[in-house]
Amino acid sequence: xxxxxxxxxxxxxxxxxxxxxxxxxxxxxxxxxxxxxxxxxxxxxxxxxxxxxxxxxxxxxxxxxxxxxxxxxxxxxxxxxxxxxxxxxxxxxxxxxxxxxxxxxxxxxxxxxxxxxxxxxxxxxxxxxxxxxxxxxxxxxxxxxxxxxxxxxxxxxxxxxxxxxxxxxxxxxxxxxxxxxxxxxxxxxxxxxxxxxxxxxxxxxxxxxxxxxxxxxxxxxxxxxxxxxxxxxxxxxxxxxxxxxxxxxxxxxxxxxxxxxxxxxxxxxxxxxxxxxxxxxxxxxxxxxxxxxxxxxxxxxxxxxxxxxxxxxxxxxxxxxxxxxxxxxxxxxxxxxxxxxxxxxxxxxxxxxxxxxxxxxxxxxxxxxxxxxxxxxxxxxxxxxxxxxxxxxxxxxxxxxxxxxxxxxxxxxxxxxxxxxxxxxxxxxxxxxxxxxxxxxxxxxxxxxxxxxxxxxxxxxxx
Length: 463
What we know:
Blueprint: H1 8-24, H2 28-43, E1 45-53, E2 60-62, H3 74-87, E3 94-96, E4 99-106, E5 109-118, H4 124-164, H5 172-186, E6 191-197, E7 204-208, H6 217-221, E8 230-232, E9 237-244, E10 247-255, H7 263-290, H8 304-321, E11 325-332, H9 335-342, H10 344-361, E12 367-372, E13 375-381, H11 385-401, E14 404-405, E15 416-417, E16 421-427, H12 437-452, E17 458-460
Parallel strand pairs: 16-17
Antiparallel strand pairs: 1-2, 1-5, 3-4, 4-5, 6-7, 6-10, 8-9, 9-10, 11-13, 11-16, 12-13, 14-15
């Protein structure tokens, strides 16, 4: 039998370049692209695909898109049969037309298939193949381990972020969307929904996001009886109950119309939901404690409860004394983007900075409140609409030029950021406004117009 001659200089170059690819690849896509370049340079390979066995479904899945099931096709049928051939140790590689298949290994066991496409004429390739197969396998195993470590770190960071929400926030209408965004950022391949249960009915209201794509979600939620995870649609819909003091208060739902949550993701979601339950419970306790308080914990301005009280007082005084009263409603433009880009700590610094600027620009008897989230409400007694418009414009300019120092957050060398605000202004008219709340609602209408017409502007609402 003729002995195959191996060109060790070429083999060394191949292994060197493959090692460089393994070392710098941080994602499956980067690894596959790197492998493709090396195989193309030495063996005229035009495409490479890696398929690994999913432990949960026991199905072969594309290494780059593990959330998708392989569609039925002749090529995929051949791929699956090749995997069986390798498992039965019937061959070390399979060649079909311009395709070459060889096995992946994990701890000595067949765990997947590598598919090469190209005009492979170099016969030395098949001499190198046993070593190449093991090296590619090692790279895939290493990358999977790396991803596990990264996911674990992200998981604990996500837990901490959910726990930290109530350090500065307590309004459920504000913290639940933040919570949804945090969980959604971790379970990226699935849509995340957050529901709250009605206090006196077995009904659930969608809190985040604005729309749910699950057709039978009401029926599914009605089946929640305890803290156990519920799985529907063959694993595509998973419901994780929110529990507070032994009672069901809501649910976090993970949904993917194509794929299912794997066992690790379910474990992660159970822990995240447990932390979410604790956070919601803390927020409710804070709200009870702060019901009789007057100041917002983060900004030091009046809270919403106090705003309504002062609104009632100032409108009554303006009506009785026949003096003018104006209201300013303002919020931070693209505040969600600040949180998404720099983190919620940067968002808190932005809120503090805007609140500080508001206090600095107002008179001693003006009344500033944090209405909720990134929105602020200001009452200006003894102020005409023209004067209020000038106050609002001055406030807008001051916020626009203010630099917010975020150096302490150590975000990729970014030391400071800027934000802008949109503002709506209204004048109290006791003849047309039957309720004191009509004053701020009219200002809020102006705020809406300001945001819809481009943001970072003042709109006087007179109707």
